[in-house]
Structures are given as C-alpha cells and as structure tokens.
Amino acid sequence: MSAQGENRQTLNTLYKLKKEILKSDNDTLVSQIDHAIQKTYNEQLVFSFIGHYSAGKSSLINYLLNQDILPSSPVPTTSNTVAVQIGDGTGIQAFINQYQYASLGNYDELKTLNTKDMDIQAITMDIQSEDYQHNTVFQDTPGVDSNTDSHEESANRFLLNSDLIFFTVEYNHVESEHNLTLLKEIAGLDIPLVLIINQIDKHDDREITLDTFLNRVKRTLTNWNIHPEHLFTTSIYESPYNRIDELKAFIQETEERRAELEVSYDARITKNIEDKQLGYLRDHLDELIEELQLDNALTSERAAERIEYLNNELTKAEINHLRSDEDELRTHVKESVKKLVKDSYLFPHQVKDSITEYLKVMAGEKKAGGLFGRKKKEQAMYEESLAQVNESIQPVIHTEINANINSFFQSLGLIGEPFKFEWKDAFLKTEQITSLNQTYITNYFDKLKSSLTKEVSEKAVVHMDKLTAADTGEVKAQTTLTAEKALYVKARELLGLIESLDTQNYRHFYIHMDDEIDKLNLLEEITLSYDDDNHVEVEESRHNEFTVNNEESMNLTAFRELNTLLEDSPRYTDYRKLLNDKLQ
After folding, report:
1. Residue-level pLDDT at 333
2. Which are the contacts of 482, defined by CB distance < 8 A and separation ≥ 6?
3. Closest CA to 528 of 78, 82, 90, 96
4. Rg for the chain, CA atoms, rounded
5. Helix, strand, coil proportions of the chain in percent (round to 5)?
6. Strand partners for 168
C-alpha cells in the first residue's frame, strides 16, 4: 500500500475509533485522538525533545535547526510545548486550547499575550530549512517540569504522538533518580527512545574518563531496564566529546525511514488509545458492579435478562399503582383505549370500498334498473350495501380492536369475560349528501373513526367493572426498580462498547471518507478580544459540534418516500411521527 493509502487507512481507523470513544464521556481521550488525527492528517514526522529546562533543549534544537528560533531561557514558554515544523511558510501560532489558535508576528507579541492573564497551552512555529524534510517537527516538550494538570495533560498528549523521543539530560544529572524514573516511564510507552547527554563540555577527564562515565551510565540504565536505541553526547560549545553533528546526521537518516516510522506510529497510537479506552470502560463497569453488589461476572446476556425482569416488575408496580386509585385507572383505560383505536388500521381497502359503495347508494349515484319496482330495488341495494359493510368491517374490528383491548386488559392484570365490540349499522350516520367527492369521503372516514373511538372507549370503561384484578405479588418501589434498571442499562452499554473494542468490530463500520475528510482539520484560527479587565475572551470552539451521527452525508430520499407512503396508514402513526422528527 502507498504512503498516501496508509495515511488514509489510518485516518479511517482513527475516525471510527473517535466515534466509538464519543459514545462514552472520556473527554481526555477524545482530546488525544484528535491530536493523533491532526498529526496523521498533516503527515507529520515528530521528534520530541523532553527533559528539564536546565538540560538545554531549546539551545540544542536551535543548533540543530541552525536558527536562533527558540528562547534559551524559560520565558515566555515556561510550561508550554513548542513545536517547530519545517515547511514553506513562517509564523507563530499560540494555542489557547487544543483546537483554537491566534496567529502572532513575533515573540514580542507572545510576551504581550502572556501579560493578559492568558493560559497558552502550546506554541507552533513554521520555519523554512534546507537541512530537513517538509512536515518534520521538532517538539520541545517540557513535561518534566509541568506544574499544572492541564499542562501535564497537554505535554503527555504531545509526547504520545511522537515518532521518536530524544530524552535530553544535563551532564551532571544523568543518573538522578528523578530522571531515571521518568526515563523508565517513557520507555514503557514503546516509542523509539534516544538518550542525549547534553552539555558534555562540562566533562573533565581529570575527574573521570568519558569511557568510564558512559559505561557507568549504561550499567545504571540496564539495572533500571531502560534500553535506549542510541546515546549521544552533545553540546553547543566545543568539546572533544561533542557528537552533536552525528545527532543531526542521525535525524536526517531517520527522516529517510519516515514511511517505516509512520506505520509503527499508526499501530502504536491506535493500540494505545484502544487500551486506554478499554481501561476507562472497565473501571466504570467495575464501579457499577460494585454498586449493584454482584458476586459473579456480569455479561451482556445477564444484563439483558435482568433488564427484562426489571421491566416486568416495573409494569407490575405501575399496575399496582393504577389499581390503587379507581378514578385514575378509569382515566388510564379510557385514554389508552382511545389511542389504541386511533392507531388501529380500521379501514383497509376492502372496508373503504364497501363504505364508499354505501355512500354512493345514499347519494343516489347508483340507480336501480327497470321501470317497475324501483323503490323496492333501491331498498334492496341499500340493505345489500349495509351487509357488505358489516361483512368487511366486523373481522377488522375483531383483530384491530377486540383482540388488542383484551391484551391491554390482560397487561393490567384484569381478568374475566372477554371484551367484544360489535359493529352496528347505526354507526354509518349520514346527513344529506349534496356532492360525493373525495374531500367528502375523506372527512366521512375521519368522523367515523372519531365516533368509533368514543364508542369503544366508553364501552371499555363499562366492561372494566366486570373484570377482577389478578394478584401481582409483592413488588419493590418504582423508584428502586428504576434506579436498578438504569445501572443495568449503563452496564450493558459499557459491555457493548468493551466488546466492540476487544473484537475491533468498530473498524468494520462503513465511513465514506470523501465526505468526512474536510472534518479532519480540527484547527480554527481566532481573533482574540479583551474584556474591561484586560482578560482575553475566547470564542467557543467549533470542535464541540462533532456528533456521532453524520446525517448530512446520508441520502434521505428513501426515508421521505416512506414517510409519504405512511400518511394513509393509521396503524403506523407512531413510526411516521418518528420519521418526521428525524427528517426535520
């Protein structure tokens, strides 16, 4: 696969993974995956230099770039990551948060911004260089000295998106416990690691030979189970042991392995994010299991069974509540039956046809033939039309009304004589018909449906008095059942998310990347404004507009056609309402 194809496939995977993470509330991980998406989208090769301020990282990077671009003192970037990207442009961007930045002309503007009580999370700089390839990034990551959680989180995010880490340590502090502890943590990230012993000009052969010093360092690293791929001794000053030019050559050689490093990064960052999300989900699941006081492992099947049981218990609790208040029960039955009749499919085509024929007879559109006995023939036509209506509609009443109302009574735990509603010719009320057109017929059916709804609901309330209440047994309080159900629903959701990541099933979801690619550039330039107290006012980030469902990319024509087809189908009123809500 080509490098471009690999890049596109990685974006596809990361984008799907982001959608999966957004199903939980793991905002920190969303931030990290956005950073990974941005790096992949921009096809960056990132070299991260990490260490204490006193290690001289900024001066070292300046030398490697052959430009005095980073300040050698910790002002103004005392606890910010600074990323220098090689390209065709020049400029400085101060990131107010991960997604929004303000463009600056120079460091003086950056210093001014710092006086405005502004927390700058990161700084990026674009420079031109003939020594390095485009989209190579030198990243000064002062995570060691971060003194706030937000700065530490930002530094970790930058660090995890590195292709290679240069751990830079000052000559006199190579074997400090703090440095060794941090080195061991970084080695555990499985990111290629190079150790730079900087300020080697401080070495004095009269105290210890360099070979003895380096051998001691290597033994210490081995004892700590730290195995950097390379070790360089560097300084911006002259020293017989200065290998800074060898370091520069190593970086240039590494650039030639860009494709190899990108493949390694893609696999590493995806696994890292998957593992972190799995840990996050399992921690939350453990909390739920503890709250539910379960002794055995919880599975999706067991959660589903429990939810079904709780739903049944909630139904019983609702029934008990209704049956404890006769007036409320009557109101519930009446309104529920009204809705049931309204939503029923009472007028299929055979019923519509027979009633329409009846209306034609009543309107005089159907005439009796012959010269004699016309009145008798018309009466016969009238009676025949009534019989056809009765024959066509009574079976529909049985299935659409009687069967459903009996099921409804059963759901309330009310048992006894079955409910039976019979069709009567009297329901076919007709005033004088002046013009039998489609509008009249439509209105007639609406009125007939309303009349039947009223008749059936009143009969159902009367019938309720003939029924007896079945014993539902002891049931917990509704609030207790509802709270337990909510925990199991959340647990089932977490189990589903865990399974999707464990099996990597989320990777099989289809995403049309041509429609999504424009969304992958998450950065947004803003113009800073100041309030009366000279504090910076930051605009809301459009990053918050990301949603799991991308409805804009869907072709909704079929759904709109289905919605139109359902207009004349009362049985599917609820479905049509749902479609309407989604289409608006």
Report:
1. 94
2. 314
3. 96
4. 38
5. 60, 10, 30
6. 196
Contact predicate 507/500, CB 8 Å? no
Least confidently predicted of 228-232, 512-516, 543-547: 543-547
Alpha-carbon 574 to chain mean position: 27
pLDDT at position 559 is 63
CB 98, CB 31: distance < 8 Å: yes
Query: Residue length, the chain?
Result: 584
Instruction: Look up residue 150 and give its two tokens.
Output: 């937000």
**pTM assigned to the model:** 0.70
φ/ψ of residue 341, rounded to 5: -70, -40
Q: What does the DSSP 8-state code read for residue 398?
A: I
Q: Phi/psi class of residue 514: alpha, beta or left (left: φ > 0; alpha: ψ in -120 to 50)? A: alpha
Q: 97: closest CA among 80, 74, 84, 77?
A: 80
Locate 575 and state its tokens: 């479905």
Report DSSP letters for 282-346, one per residue. HHHHHHHHHHHT-SSPP-HHHHHHHHHHHHHHHHHHHHHHHHT-HHHHHHHHHHHHHHHHHHS--
Q: In the predicted model, what is the mean pLDDT of residues 105-117?
A: 72
In this predicted model, what pLDDT tens digit does every residue of 350-404 receive, in sequence order? 999 999 999 998 888 877 665 566 788 888 888 999 999 999 999 999 999 999 9
Pair of tokens at residue 121: 């999370």
Contact, 182 vs 228, CB < 8 A?
Answer: no
Q: Partners of 530 in the beta sheet?
A: 536
Question: Is residue 66 within 8 Å of 101, Cβ to Cβ?
Answer: no
Residue 398 makes CB contacts below 8 A (sequence gap 6+) with: none
Calculate mean pLDDT across residues 51-77. 78
Kindly indicate the confidence band of residue 53, based on its pLDDT and cuts at 50, 70 and 90.
Answer: confident
